[in-house]
Each structure stands twice: as C-alpha cells, then as structure tokens.
Automatic annotation (TrEMBL):
SUPFAM superfamilies: P-loop containing nucleoside triphosphate hydrolases. Residues 5-246 form the ABC transporter domain. Keywords: ATP-binding, Nucleotide-binding, Transport. PROSITE patterns: ABC_TRANSPORTER_1, ABC_TRANSPORTER_2. This is Branched-chain amino acid transport system ATP-binding protein. It comes from Rhizobium herbae. The lineage of its organism: Bacteria, Pseudomonadati, Pseudomonadota, Alphaproteobacteria, Hyphomicrobiales. Pfam families: ABC_tran, BCA_ABC_TP_C. GO terms for molecular function: ATP binding. Transmembrane segments: none annotated. Belongs to the ABC transporter superfamily. PANTHER family: ABC TRANSPORTER ATP-BINDING PROTEIN, CONSERVED COMPONENT OF ABC TRANSPORTER FOR NATURAL AMINO ACIDS-RELATED.
C-alpha cells in the first residue's frame, strides 16, 4: 500500500474553463513540499480539491492507498487531510489553551466537556500541554487569543489543526499577513512539525519556502511546470524569470 498522499490525473473544469490540468504528484510520509506559482496559477483550487471543497472533473486522490474522492470535507479531516492558515479562525475571547482544547474534544466526540480541567480528562490536558510545548506557546497558554500578536495567532491555529492529528497538513500561505519581525515564528514551527507528517506549503514568501521545503512544485495555468528540488527550481530559467524574480537570479 502506498504511504502518504497520491494524486493522479486530477483535473477541474468550470464550464469551458480548465483550472486544474492533469495534476499528478505524491506527498510521501514526512514530505516537506512547497507549491508555488503566480496568482491565478490554481494553487488554491488544488488545495480545495484535496480537502473536498471542490469535486474534481476527473482524476483520483489517494490517502495511504485508499480513495478519498467521495468523502466530504469533514470526512477527509477525520481521514487525515487538514488545511490551515490564510485566514485565522479562532475564538478570540477564549485562551490559547481553551482554543486548543476544542478540536481535541471534537476529535474525541467529547464536546460536552469544553471547559473541563485536567482533573476531568488528564490525558486531554497532557495532549494540550504537549502541543503548547511543541509550538513554543506555553507562556501564552492562559492568555486570551485577542491579545496575541498576529504571528502568535497563526501558531495557535497551527496547534488547533495539529490537534486533529492529521496525516497530511496543508499550510495555505502561512506567512500571509505576518510581520517580517514575526515570520521566524512560522519557520520555526514548521521545522518542529512531526517528522512523519506530510506537509504541503502553499506560499508566496520564497525565503520561507527555501528554508523549510526539500521539494518544490511550480504550478502555472493549472498545470505542473516543474517538480523538483529547490536547487532545480532556482536553476530553471523560466521559473526564475516568471515566479522568483531577479532577486533569485
């Protein structure tokens, strides 16, 4: 059985407009893959096909060898495909700890115990503690989310997504809106993700991409132009001129 995520011949048409063209790629366990390309290249469409927001016109999506094509968004999350970032979706009046508790309770189908403490479900609080530690959020654990810096809120959202215990994590523009003084928090968090987790990073910040990705897929007009190592991407003249700019030349 194939481990990780595998996409074969994935296409999406809106009437006569084709926005995804015969996409074939794999995200093995532990992958750190970036998806780049200009605005309108089809990056968000691809993410939406993976998560079930959109249904493909043709092609297959396999998770550990099993098709997820007929699954709904929520079913895909439970199967192990989770997407985060781009737009934060947090309960701003709750603390960091309370925010992280919610997806764990949902995962365990214990939503009637939202405000219980460690004496109620000690294993749950242990898991929250570990997520706080892993993302360097422990000093902020009991602070309301609304008082956090934007980069810190992004880390909380990442913690919420990791609480779902995904097998495949899609980071949609993790650096979007994060001040340059806080972008290192995102880079460090990505580097600390579980080694066996497959990660797809959709990002315009090429400095971040080159820091965390060991493979880069270049998308243009809904099709894959190049799938290779960072060095292969840097060395490709067309990619360098069209997508990376002179700074990377």
């Amino acid at each position: 059985m194939t481990s990780g995520l595998a996409v074969h011949g994935l296409s999406k048409n809106f009437g006569g407009l084709q926005v995804a063209r015969n996409l074939t790629l794999s995200l093995p366990n532990g992958a750190r893959t970036a998806l780049i390309g200009p605005n309108g290249a089809g990056k968000t469409t691809f993410a939406n096909l993976l998560t079930g927001v959109l249904k493909p016109t043709s092609g297959t999506i396999l998770l550990n060898g099993k098709s997820v094509g007929k699954m709904s968004e929520s079913e895909r999350v439970r199967a192990g495909i989770a997407k985060t970032f781009q737009i934060t979706n947090l309960f701003r009046d709750l603390t960091v700890r309370e925010n992280i508790r919610l997806p764990i309770l949902e995962r365990e189908r214990r939503t009637n115990k939202v405000f219980c403490h460690s004496d109620g479900i000690p294993e749950l609080e242990c898991e929250i503690f570990q997520l706080l530690e892993d993302l360097a959020l422990t000093p902020l654990a009991d602070k309301p989310v609304r008082g956090l810096a934007y980069g810190q809120q992004r880390l909380v959202e990442l913690a919420l997504t990791l609480a779902l215990k995904p097998k495949v994590l899609i980071l949609d523009e993790p650096a979007a809106g994060v001040p340059s003084t806080e972008s290192h928090l995102i880079v460090q968090a990505i580097k600390r993700l579980p080694a066996d987790l497959s990660v797809l990073i959709i990002e315009h910040d090429m400095q971040l991409v080159f820091e965390v990705a060991n493979r880069i897929i270049v998308l243009v007009n809904g099709a894959i132009l190049l799938d290779g190592t960072p060095q292969e991407v840097i060395s490709n003249r067309e990619v360098r001129e069209l997508y990376l700019g002179a700074d990377h030349g």
